[in-house]
Amino acid sequence: MQATLNQEKGGGALQLTGMQRVNEKHLENLNAAQLKNLVRKGFLARIYLHLLSLENFARLLERKASRHKGGDRA
Q1: For the stretch 38-73, what's the b/e string if a residue is b when 16 or more beta carbons lie within 10 angstroms of its beta carbon?
Q2: How far apart are CA 54 and CA 64, in angstroms?
Q3: Cβ–Cβ contacts within 10 Å for residue 5, how many?
Q4: What is the full DSSP assignment across 13-55?
Q5: Which residues contact 43 (CB under 8 A, 6 or more apart)?
Q6: pTM higher than 0.70, yes or no?
Q7: What is the pLDDT of residues 51-69, one digit of tens each?
Q8: In Å, what is the CA distance from 55 to each residue of 13, 37, 39, 52, 73?
Q9: For the residues 25-45, what does the mean pLDDT come to?
C-alpha cells in the first residue's frame, strides 16, 4: 500500500508492505451460498470490521503527518 501524507502538514510518501485488502465490489457480488459460508465460518463479521478499519486509515495518516510536522515522533 502506498499513501501520500498531506503536503500542507509536512507529509510525504508512505509505503506499507505485507498488507492485504478485501475488495468490496467482489464482496457485493457473492451469492447467497457464498455469504452463508462466510457467516458460518465466522469470516463475514471480520471482513466488515476490516472494511471499517480501512475507513479510519486516512485519519491515521493525517495524525502521522501532524506529528511529523510538529516534531513529535512519539
Answers
A1: beeeeebeeeeeeeeeeeeeeeebeebbeebeeeee
A2: 16
A3: 19
A4: EEE--S-----HHHHHT--HHHHHHHHHTTHHHHHHHHHHHHH
A5: none
A6: no
A7: 988 888 878 877 877 776 6
A8: 19, 25, 22, 5, 24
A9: 96
